Amino acid sequence: MSQIETFYDVMRRQGITRRSFLKYCSLTASALGLGPAFVPKIAHAMETKPRTPVIWVNGLECTCCSESFIRGSHPLAKDVVLSMISLDYSHTLMAAAGHAAEAALEDTIEKYKGNYILAVEGNPPLNEDGMYCIVGGKPFVEQLRHAAKDAKAVISWGACASYGCVQAAKPNPTQATPVHKVITDKPIIKVPGCPPIAEVMTGVITYMLTFDRLPELDRQGRPAMFYGQRIHDKCYRRPHFDAGQFVEQWDDENARKGYCLYKVGCKGPTTYNACSTVRWNEGTSFPIQSGHGCIGCSEDGFWDQGSFYDRVTDLTQFGVEANADQVGMAAAGVVGGGVALHAAVSALKAAQKKSQDTVSQSEEV
Amino acid sequence: MSAPTTDAPFLTEPDADAADLASATRQTSVYVYEAPLRIWHWVNAAAILVLCLTGYLIGSPPPTMIIDEATHQFVFGYIRFAHFAAGWVLVVGFLGRIYWAIFGNHHARQLFYLPIFNGRWWKEVWFEIKWYLFLERAPKKYVGHNPLAQLAMFFFITLGVSFMIVTGLALYSEGLGQDSTLYKMFGWVFTMVGGNSHVVHTIHHLGMWWIIIFMIIHIYVAIREDIMSRQSIVSTMISGHRTFKDDRPD
Ligand code: HEM
Ligand code: HEM
Ligand code: SF4
Ligand code: SF4
């Protein structure tokens, strides 16, 4: 019976009315940027397709992805998506615990072989055979490999699963490794951020459940509909950027006026995410709106890009912590000094040669 | 022909042909840099100057100016615009320079290859190094670039400017958007550095200093050689003609 259970069945069982269901379908269509024509298509898919189960595993992480996820701004979407996924396996959200939970995992894998989606929060540390993260008595990397083997697709939640995040920052003692470097034979969708925005998470998962395929991805494997533009491209402080009106120091007059945060290290110009359009906490605000620069949390290795508060950030490759201008100026200074010295010696030599030439000439005469 | 060929005047090899040689030993001038190359040189130099100035300011913007409401003020916008405009001049100029390397005279090809399999050429590089270390009393004559200059031009300009163009166009394509043709052409640059565009900013920025170091050396050496070498230098890049100060053969 469970084989033919549809999304619609599940929702109804969770007490969601048909009216709410249809509302949910139109909400999903607009969240994904699809036209009204897609509403009946989504509804039809959900009424007829067998439910796709989601297994949600947690490695080295801080649970901020789960925290973000359960704060989806549209209660409807949140309820629906939660009711669809919390049934299967998720440490944080499921009712079962301990052996019962692990049994539920095995059950789901067995029953839906090749049909479930594996959502990964956090990443596996590979050093010391993975002993830095133990789940159910075994290294997390083993659970990850095991659960990924029969998955249809993998979602990497957050910067941890996508890139490694803080636990993979240099020098990365536990050798925390992003999911795509461990699981190489499955389609993987990265949903980075620290955490990712709730609406982005529910949007991605709904898309995959209803359309049964991955959304269009960018070069790095992130869904293009949410990660296709930079924070900077849609930032409401952009006019101050173009004008050249910057916050020079925290707490200066310009900060009060809400000028651009570029000079105090805003990474908006190099960060692809939806914060400046979707915003956070039910669309209330986002970091730049509350006066702090973007720290680039949805970009690879954002912890290793120098200070969050510098525009031209420090490099460590030259043995000392210095930024590109300091390195370049030092090199140019050495070269300039060399040139000056060389010019001086050249002048001396030329004078010397000249006097020698005159001497030898006078001797010849 | 008892004299070993390796000691023959360098003028014969690899950049001077018989006509150049005949002309040079008679102390007349050789037409080296044709007009398109000279125009490119100065346009390129101007573009690079603008790119360095505005590029530095893009990394460290000038102090906030409050001239007008943000909507009517475009100070940083103009700085970036000047950078992008000069960037395109550099790009188009460089493509034109490649065209000229193919269709111009043989001196125009020197910028794009190094005769690394020519032992003779390496000897001349070594000679030039010694000349710059004050270990040789008299410099040699060269019709085109001297071999050391050719080596430096290749690493600083051919490779250096190519690097700035590729990273610059990648950054520029981000502004056009990920669905732009330019992004499709240069998006791989981001993949090469691991995906984070901030890294591309950083290496593009470091590249600027690579070019600045070239400029310091290049301008110094051009003026120094003009005074101390046995041929014209600066005027050659203006008129195209190389003249020689004496008529000893090498
Ligand atoms: C010799 C050549 C060049 C030099 C010295 C140069 C220098 C610089 C510097 C120092 C920066 C600031 C980097 C940072 O810290 O963010 C920059 C940014 C940039 N450059 Fe260049 N550049 C050169 C060529 C080009 C070219 C050919 C293009 C292509 C049109 C280009 C496009 C850009 C873009 C789009 C940015 C980023 C602007 C922004 O983020 O607002 N550059 N350049
Ligand atoms: C940003 C500044 C500059 C750049 C990037 C630059 C670049 C170059 C390049 C690439 C060449 C080789 C030409 C070729 O083979 O196609 C060259 C040659 C030359 N440049 Fe510049 N240049 C700059 C500024 C100057 C200045 C200011 C002077 C004059 C003082 C100058 C004088 C010369 C001369 C005389 C040559 C010919 C060298 C020779 O005769 O072998 N350059 N330059
Ligand atoms: S605050 Fe940041 S994202 Fe906004 S315009 Fe300034 S640099 Fe760009
Ligand atoms: S504004 Fe930047 S750092 Fe902040 S959450 Fe968005 S992407 Fe992450």
Largest sheet of chain A: 5 strands, parallel
Strand-residue proportion of chain A = 5-15%
Tally of structural domains of chain B = 1
At the first level of CATH, the class of chain B is Mainly Alpha
CATH superfamily of chain B: Transmembrane di-heme cytochromes, Chain C
What percent of residues of chain B adopt helix (DSSP H or I)? 55-70%
Report the average pLDDT across residues of chain A.
89
CATH topology of chain B: Fumarate Reductase Cytochrome B subunit
Question: What does the radius of gyration of chain A come to?
Answer: 29 Å
Catalogue the unreliable spans of chain B.
1-12
The outline of chain A comes out as: elongated
- Secondary-structure element string of chain B: HEHHHHHHHHE
Number of strands of chain B: 2
Domain module tally of chain A: 2
Features:
heterodimer, A: 365 residues, alpha/beta, Rossmann fold, 2 domains, two-stranded antiparallel ribbon, 42% helix, elongated, B: 250 residues, mainly alpha, Fumarate Reductase Cytochrome B subunit, 9 helices, disordered N terminus, binds protoporphyrin IX containing FE, binds iron/sulfur cluster
Concise structural overview:
Chain A has 365 residues and is of the alpha/beta class. Chain A has 14 helices and nine strands. In chain A, α2 packs across α3 (38-48).
Helix and strand topology:
The complex is a heterodimer of chains A (365) and B (250).
Chain A: H1 7-13, H2 18-31, H3 38-48, E1 54-58, H4 64-69, H5 75-85, E2 89-90, H6 98-111, E3 116-121, E4 134-135, E5 138-139, H7 140-149, E6 151-157, H8 158-163, E7 188-191, H9 198-211, H10 224-227, H11 238-243, H12 253-257, H13 275-278, E8 314-315, E9 322-323, H14 324-364
Parallel strand pairs in A: 1-2, 1-3, 3-6, 6-7
Antiparallel strand pairs in A: 4-5, 8-9
Helix pairs in contact in A: 2-3
Chain B: H1 18-25, E1 30-31, H2 35-59, H3 75-103, H4 119-132, H5 147-176, H6 181-186, H7 188-192, H8 197-228, H9 236-239, E2 241-242
Antiparallel strand pairs in B: 1-2
Helix pairs in contact in B: 2-3, 2-8, 3-5, 5-8
Bound molecules: protoporphyrin IX containing FE (HEM) (2 copies) and iron/sulfur cluster (2 copies).
One iron/sulfur cluster (SF4) binds at residues 193, 231, 271, 273, 275, 286-287, 294-298 of chain A.
